[in-house]
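Consider a typical record:
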Amino acid sequence: MTTPLNTTRRLGSAAAATALALGAGLLTAAPANADGGYDQTWFSDTTFVNILSGKCLEVGGWRTDDGAPVNQWACTGGANQKWRFTDGQLINVNSGKCLDVPGWDTTPGIQLTQWECNGGDNQRWSAGVMGVSGMRRIFDKHTLLVLDAAGASKEDGAPVIQWTRNSGANQAWGPGPNPGLGA
């Protein structure tokens, strides 16, 4: 069977573009997620916006210490609101520390923090795509609980907790805007 030349060129161009993106660190493959699939596109220095509140996941007050709380805040584009996905860990760009379930706690409702990256499953995350919207639930590997804006709050400073998966928009996170770049 022969393949039309235009089809071969398009496939070759797509493969080359993907290889360039991977080489540049723009795309990385994520581990299997709790929904049973793979989230295949994580972008470097991503902001995560809560779909219900429109606020970004951040380390509050630009803190860099272990145990600093993670909350939601109006998106500013600051490094404390940017996250890098590396080896299953979400690393805050400002502090260089990992999103962490403190003390390996399995209780729904505990506020998430940042902590020195140690490779523990309480610092390993994956994302499951929610239907056709492209929004994601972000799961902790240790507990399989998800990131949740506590109490479905829309307020700045509301804690981000781990919670049992449900259909709430306060558990849906999408890629964030880049202030000044036209979202």
In short: Residues 1-41, 179-183 have pLDDT under 50 and may be disordered. The chain has one helix and twelve strands. Residues 4 and 159 are 55 Å apart (CA to CA).
